[in-house]
C-alpha cells in the first residue's frame, strides 16, 4: 500500500479490571493501514473496543504495546504534551455528543481549537470560520448558542469545529448516534463531501449501515482484531 497515513501495527490494549486481577484485553494484535484520502468505517457491538481503537489512532490514548504511525512518524511513544500538539494540528475529532460549550456561540465554538495555536492570523482564521459555517449551512446561526440549535445543527457545528485547524484526518465516534435518521443522513453526506472535496482521511465508528455504506471500506472489530466486513 502506498504511503499509509495512519498505520497501526500489532496494537495491544488492555485495561485493569475492578473485579479481577486479570486485565481486560480489548485490542489484541490489531493491524490497520489507512491511506491519505481514504474513508473507512468500523462497526461492531457496544463494548468491543471501537472507541478505544479510535482514541489510539487519534493520539488521545496510547496502546499497551504496538506502534502507531501517523504520516510515517511513530506517535505511540510521545508524551501527553507532544500528543496534544499533534492532535490539535493534524486530527479533527467528532463525537456522538457534540461537546460544544453551552455559553459560547456557534462561531466561538468553531474557533475554540485555534486558541491553542501559537501565532494565529485572526483575519485568516475568521474568514475560514465563515467558509466552514457556510459549508455546514450554519451561516445564519453563527451567533446562536448551542442550546438554541437542533441536534443536527449542533452536530454540524461540531463538524466545523473539527475542521477549523485544517486537519488531514477526521476521526468520528458514532457521529450520527444521537440523531434521527434523516438528520443522520445529512451529516453522513457532509462527511463524505468533505472527504471528497478536501481529500480528508476519514475514520468513522458507526452502528449505522447507511453511514458505513458511504465509506470506501468497512471493518468489523471482533475479538480485538479487525476483519473486512461484507
Ligand atoms: P465501544 O466503543 O466499542 O463500545 P470501548 O472502546 O469504549 O468500546 O470499550 C471497550 C471495553 O473496554 C469495554 O469493556 C470498556 O468497559 C473497557 N474500557 C474502556 N475504557 C476503559 C478504561 N479507561 N478503564 C477500564 N476499562 C475500560
Ligand atoms: Mg464507543
Please render the helix and strand layout as text:
Layout: E1 4-15, E2 24-35, E3 39-43, H1 50-57, E4 65-70, E5 73-74, H2 80-90, E6 91-94, H3 106-111, H4 122-135, H5 151-163, E7 169-173, H6 181-197, E8 201-205, H7 209-213, E9 217-222, E10 225-228
Parallel strand pairs: 3-8, 3-9, 6-7, 7-8
Antiparallel strand pairs: 1-2, 1-4, 4-5, 9-10
The protein binds adenosine-5'-diphosphate (ADP) and magnesium ion.
Magnesium ion (MG) binds next to helix 1.
How would you sum up the global shape?
globular
Write down the secondary-structure element order. EEEHEEHEHHHEHEHEE
Mean pLDDT: 93
Can you give the helix content as a percent range?
A: 25-40%
Sheet having the most strands: 6 strands, mixed
Distance between the termini: 21 Å
Ligands, deduplicated: adenosine-5'-diphosphate, magnesium ion
Residues in β-strands, percent: 25-35%
Q: Which structural class do the helices and strands define?
A: alpha/beta
Amino acid at each position: 500500500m502506498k504511503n499509509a497515513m495512519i498505520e497501526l501495527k500489532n496494537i495491544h490494549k488492555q485495561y485493569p479490571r475492578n473485579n479481577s486481577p486479570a486485565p481486560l484485553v480489548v485490542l489484541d494484535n490489531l493491524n490497520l493501514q489507512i491511506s491519505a484520502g481514504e474513508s473507512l468505517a468500523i462497526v461492531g457491538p457496544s463494548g468491543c473496543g471501537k472507541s478505544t481503537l479510535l482514541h489510539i489512532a487519534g493520539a488521545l490514548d496510547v496502546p499497551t504495546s504496538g506502534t502507531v504511525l501517523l504520516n510515517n512518524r511513530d506517535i505511540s511513544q510521545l508524551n501527553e504534551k507532544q500528543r496534544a500538539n499533534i492532535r490539535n494540528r493534524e486530527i479533527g475529532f467528532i463525537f456522538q455528543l457534540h461537546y460544544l460549550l453551552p455559553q459560547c456561540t456557534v462561531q466561538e465554538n468553531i474557533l475554540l481549537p485555534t486558541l491553542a495555536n501559537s501565532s494565529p492570523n485572526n483575519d485568516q482564521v475568521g474568514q475560514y470560520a465563515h467558509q466552514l459555517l457556510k459549508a455546514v449551512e450554519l451561516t445564519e446561526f453563527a451567533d446562536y448558542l448551542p442550546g438554541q440549535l437542533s441536534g443536527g445543527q449542533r452536530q454540524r457545528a461540531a463538524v466545523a469545529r473539527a475542521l477549523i485547524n485544517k486537519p488531514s484526518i477526521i476521526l468520528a465516534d458514532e457521529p450520527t448516534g444521537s440523531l434521527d435518521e434523516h438528520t443522520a443522513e445529512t451529516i453522513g453526506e457532509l462527511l463524505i463531501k468533505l472527504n471528497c472535496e478536501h481529500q480528508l482521511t476519514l475514520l468513522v465508528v458507526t452502528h449505522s449501515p447507511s453511514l458505513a455504506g458511504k465509506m470506501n471500506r468497512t471493518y468489523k472489530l471482533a475479538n480485538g482484531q479487525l476483519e473486512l466486513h461484507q
